[in-house]
């Protein structure tokens, strides 16, 4: 079961603006880019061609792991506005 | 909006317990939750504990949405392909613990607080705590400012407000685990057959080794009525060190032959994730100041050696509420009066137990390979000897087993284990 199939089990209400952002210049200098693998929802992906960090914020599970993992404290993290984001039915 | 005596941020177990205790004492309390409903944003294993939960919700099992009453605790020790299992199965004399679905349980718990007289504002994100000239005046949501005498911070592990007020520092990656879980639907009868249960009873399992070996990681599996909750938690530092993706470990765990036999044919109906505080006693922040107290996960009050979080959350919420009631009655909500909350925590099992396990995580960290790789291997080797009758003389088999024990430095490990335990429990 790949991550997209896992995420497809979830109910989301997508906000029009992202609740996650980074300073891309800092990411360019980051060697391990741990956000691209530690995130349980595979939200972050490094785009080699454009040299930018893609953030699929609409898949976020709101766990908070990325904010703690990023050594450079480069993730500006907040909860989505009320009414938006993930909604767990079982938890 | 009217002025409240207390505003509680977050309707998880700690916030609801605080709100219900205040409402029962006739205090005007507002409970604010960012989810559309309580529980919408929450994830746990898991089980709630009967004795402490009944302290807040007497005989809750008669009316609350509980799944199964636990009658078996099991530990799976996995090698790459095999496993040994240790289990404690008991007759259901009195309820010890129940599996629950957080989406249902949290909603039910909030209803009890509302019935007791608490005001409830769901679908409301608190943005910040209002501080003017150093004095906490209330909370600011997306919609309005709400004034109160005391704020109780119950916003969980990612607590923004404990940080805003300078009560807590940034969490270090080694002091927190990320956990992922899958809720797997199976026919009720299949669950009961596979786990040896009847209609009401349930099983709580912990999983060591296998795909989780040599890492600060622990798996879990719980039986609900029509679903099995399977997942694991792993230190964020471990994911970084070994370059691991949580969802890939999840799939490895599910495909381990022993685990897969329990969930075979099941349908994954939900994937989820949440953080767990792992720092214990050494990471408890300052939990009170003028006109404010911090409870539950926001105060890092989790005993992960015993898988206890909801109970400590509820107890801390209750103790904070009792302190608030006293402060409101005395018309003095200063830090010196609210410091009583920390004293109450110290005299309760919350701090007593966390202090007992002050060093345990460090000791486990040092011995993680022994625990998650060597022990499962030896246990399986032992059962292999006991279960195979062939043409190899038993003496040769025992010798081989003992040589692994000696080679891996296990023989001195008995006195070492005792020393380690003593070190753990040293104050
Ligand atoms: C995988 C896993 C397994 C676990 N297993 C067990 C177990 O078996 N037994 C056990 O006892 N414990 C277990 N725990 C721990 C337990 O879940 C927690 O300790 C407990 O939920 C803490 O309660 P809380 O009320 O402090 O925080 P939470 O339950 O996290 O509640 C915080 C609430 O605050 C709300 N909130 C946050 N920010 C805001 C804001 N700005 N505005 C408004 N609302 C906000 C959230 O939406 C949430 O409802 C487990 C945890 C995990 C992650
Ligand atoms: S870990 Fe932090 S700095 Fe590195 S790429 Fe990710 S967000 Fe950028
Ligand atoms: S909060 Fe969790 S799910 Fe969301 S982006 Fe960060 S690590 Fe991924």
Shape of chain B: globular
Number of helices of chain A: 4
Biggest sheet overview of chain B: 9 strands, mixed
Radius of gyration of chain B: 23 Å
- The tally of strands of chain B reads 17
**Mean pLDDT rating of chain A:** 97
Number of helices, counting only DSSP H or I runs of 4 residues or more of chain B: 15
Q: Residue share in helices of chain B?
A: 25-40%
- The percent range for strand residues of chain B is 25-35%
Largest interface, per-chain counts?
A-B, 36 and 50 residues
Strand tally of chain A, please? 6
> What gap, in angstroms, lies between the N and C termini of chain B?
49 Å
N→C terminal distance of chain A: 19 Å
Structural shape of chain A: globular
Strand order of the largest sheet of chain A: 1-6
What does this structure look like?
- The complex is a heterodimer of chains A (91) and B (427).
- With 91 residues, chain A is α+β, with helices and mostly antiparallel strands.
- Chain A has helices at 3-7, 24-28, 35-38, 65-69; strands at 11-13, 20-22, 44-47, 52-55, 75-77, 85-87.
- In chain A, strand 3 and strand 4 (52-55) form a beta hairpin.
- Chain B has helices spanning 13-24, 50-56, 102-115, 161-164, 188-195, 236-242, 246-255, 257-263, 310-330, 335-346, 349-356, 360-366, 368-387, 394-407, 413-425, and strands at 4-9, 29-32, 47-49, 66-78, 83-89, 97-100, 119-121, 126-132, 135-141, 145-153, 176-185, 201-209, 217-223, 227-235, 267-277, 288-289, 292-294.
- In chain B, the strands form two sheets. In chain B, strands 3, 4, 5, 6, 11, 12, 13, 14 and 15 form a nine-stranded mixed beta sheet that branches.
- In chain B, strand 9 and strand 10 form a beta hairpin.
- The mean pLDDT of chain B is 95.
- Chain A binds chain B through residues 1-3, 6-7, 9-10, 32, 34, 37-42, 61-65, 67-69, 73, 78-79, 81-83, 85-91, and chain B through 34-36, 39-44, 101-103, 106, 123-125, 142, 157-158, 160, 170-173, 176, 178, 180, 182-183, 227, 229, 236, 239-240, 243-247, 250-251, 254, 268-275.
- Bound molecules: flavin-adenine dinucleotide (FAD) and iron/sulfur cluster (2 copies).
- One iron/sulfur cluster binds at residues 22, 26-27, 30, 33-35, 44, 53, 70, 72, 74-75 of chain A.
């Amino acid at each position: 079961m790949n991550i997209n199939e896992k995420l497809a089990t979830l109910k989301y209400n997508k906000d029009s603006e992202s609740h996650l952002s980074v300073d891309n210049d800092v990411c360019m200098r980051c060697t391990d880019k741990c956000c691209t693998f530690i995130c349980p929802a595979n939200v972050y992906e490094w785009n080699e061609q454009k040299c930018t960090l893609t953030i699929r914020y609409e898949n976020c599970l709101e766990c908070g792991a990325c904010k703690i993992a990023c050594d450079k404290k480069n993730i500006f993290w907040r909860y989505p506005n009320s009414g938006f984001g993930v909604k767990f039915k079982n938890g | 909006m009217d002025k409240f005596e207390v505003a509680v941020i977050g309707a998880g177990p700690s916030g609801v317990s605080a709100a219900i205790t205040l409402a029962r004492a006739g205090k005007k309390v507002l409970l604010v939750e960012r989810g559309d409903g309580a529980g919408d944003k929450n994830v746990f294993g898991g089980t709630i504990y009967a004795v402490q939960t009944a302290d807040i919700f007497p005989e809750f099992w008669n009316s609350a949405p509980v799944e199964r009453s636990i009658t078996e605790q099991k530990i799976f020790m996995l090698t790459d392909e095999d496993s040994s299992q240790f289990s404690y199965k008991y007759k259901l004399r009195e309820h010890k613990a129940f599996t629950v679905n957080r989406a249902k349980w949290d909603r039910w718990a909030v209803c009890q607080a509302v019935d007791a007289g608490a005001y409830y504002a769901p679908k409301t994100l608190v943005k910040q705590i209002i501080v003017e000239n150093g004095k906490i005046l209330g909370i600011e949501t997306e919609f309005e400012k709400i004034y109160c005498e005391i704020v109780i911070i119950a916003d969980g592990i990612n607590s923004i407000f404990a940080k805003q007020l300078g009560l807590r520092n940034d969490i270090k990656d080694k002091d927190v685990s990320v956990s992922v879980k899958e809720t797997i639907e199976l026919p009720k009868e299949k669950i009961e057959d596979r786990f040896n249960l009847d209609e009401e009873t349930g099983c709580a399992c912990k999983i060591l080794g296998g795909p989780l070996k040599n890492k600060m990681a622990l798996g879990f599996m719980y039986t609900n009525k029509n679903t099995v909750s399977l997942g694991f938690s792993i230190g964020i530092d471990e994911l970084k060190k070994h370059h691991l993706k949580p969802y890939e470990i999840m799939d490895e765990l599910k495909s381990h032959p022993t685990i897969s036999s329990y969930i075979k044919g099941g349908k994954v109906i939900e994937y989820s994730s949440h953080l767990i505080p792992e720092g214990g006693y050494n990471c408890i922040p300052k939990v009170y100041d003028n006109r404010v107290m911090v409870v539950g996960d926001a105060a890092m009050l989790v005993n992960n050696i015993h898988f206890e979080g909801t109970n400590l959350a509820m107890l801390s919420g209750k103790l904070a509420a009792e302190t608030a009631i006293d402060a409101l009655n005395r018309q003095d909500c200063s830090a010196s009066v609210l410091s009583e909350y920390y004293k109450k925590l110290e005299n309760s099992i919350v701090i007593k137990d966390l202090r007992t396990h002050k060093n345990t995580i460090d000791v486990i960290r040092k011995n993680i390979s022994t625990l998650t790789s060597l022990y499962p291997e030896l246990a399986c080797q032992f059962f292999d000897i006991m279960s195979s009758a062939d043409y190899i003389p038993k003496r040769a088999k025992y010798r081989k087993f003992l040589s692994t024990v000696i080679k891996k430095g296990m023989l001195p490990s008995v006195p070492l284990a005792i020393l380690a335990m003593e070190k753990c429990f040293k104050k």
